[in-house]
């Protein structure tokens, strides 16, 4: 059995495997521009960000009904559970669905059908995090948060994702203030493609509690010192970094140096259907390619539960941490 872990950086739309895409397309009468799953699987071998985003948004056309979102989440949770995930904080991108005429309620209630029973079905506790698309306007983000009003009992926090460069965190100051006033937790992608200054801005202007990716923080020693001092978790996604060429090869990934520096790193899958692996695959890859010790792997697993939004259930957090401590490699 793989080491128990929490997954804190996972886009549910990025878990759409070719087989499920075809199943949902058939159910909804959507024609995909690929003859079969093998051809679609080949398209998943994109080699740059734009071809990934084109495919990613194109395939969302198959997600139409509550049942589609339920099936999507259920398939992810089954795969995650098999790789040792005990707790998952799941991102979703409502703007990508609202723009296609799919209502907020369809998305949230559909996902919730799977999340609400996940503990019984898969042994995985869950949280849901609504992400704003940073290449859309601040007004659009504000409208999206308003549309989520009736569903806030299902939503733990807000995040910020999609193309980073040219869309600094400060653009979303107002909507993050509104989210904070609603009692929502705050995270944001920063320092993936964007500069270390975006990480600082996400902390200072948006008030984020965790930084998604944060990889380029290593370019700024003062920022690293601050992240260590303030115990800010970073949700790293090593296989994603390789596929999107944030690092040249996995062997070049700075994770070992980041752990050495005392950063609170976690390892996650990002968009696992597209980036070559789920949470456990990412753990296995960094362990073998980067030569992490068993104790470093245990530290990554511990960090994932420490950084999880489980403040309303500390008993559960303690239970998960005890599972990590008792784990025998
Ligand atoms: Zn991401």
Detailed description of the structure:
The chain has a single domain, classed as Metal-dependent hydrolases (TIM Barrel), CATH 3.20.20.140. With 329 residues, the chain is of the alpha/beta class. The chain has 17 helices and 8 strands. The chain is 48% helix and 14% strand. Bound molecules: zinc ion. Residues 9, 11, 161, 189, 212, 270 line the site of zinc ion (ZN).
Describe, in short, the structure shown.
It catalyses: adenine + H2O + H(+) = hypoxanthine + NH4(+). The chain has helices at residues 18-28, 37-43, 49-59, 66-82, 94-98, 104-115, 118-122, 138-147, 173-181, 196-204, 221-229, 238-243, 255-260, 272-275, 279-290, 294-306, 314-326; strands at residues 5-11, 85-92, 125-133, 157-161, 185-190, 210-213, 233-236, 264-267.
Give the names of the bound compounds: zinc ion
Main sheet: strands, sense, barrel: 8 strands, parallel
How does the helix and strand content classify structurally? alpha/beta
Q: What are the secondary-structure elements, in order, as H or E?
A: EHHHHEHHHEHEHEHEHEHHEHHHH
* pLDDT < 50 runs, ≥5 residues: none
Number of helices: 17
What is the strand and helix layout of this fold?
Blueprint: E1 5-11, H1 18-28, H2 37-43, H3 49-59, H4 66-82, E2 85-92, H5 94-98, H6 104-115, H7 118-122, E3 125-133, H8 138-147, E4 157-161, H9 173-181, E5 185-190, H10 196-204, E6 210-213, H11 221-229, E7 233-236, H12 238-243, H13 255-260, E8 264-267, H14 272-275, H15 279-290, H16 294-306, H17 314-326
Parallel strand pairs: 1-2, 2-3, 3-4, 4-5, 5-6, 6-7, 7-8
Helix pairs in contact: 1-2, 4-6, 8-9, 16-17
Zinc ion is lined by residues 9, 11, 161, 189, 212, 270.
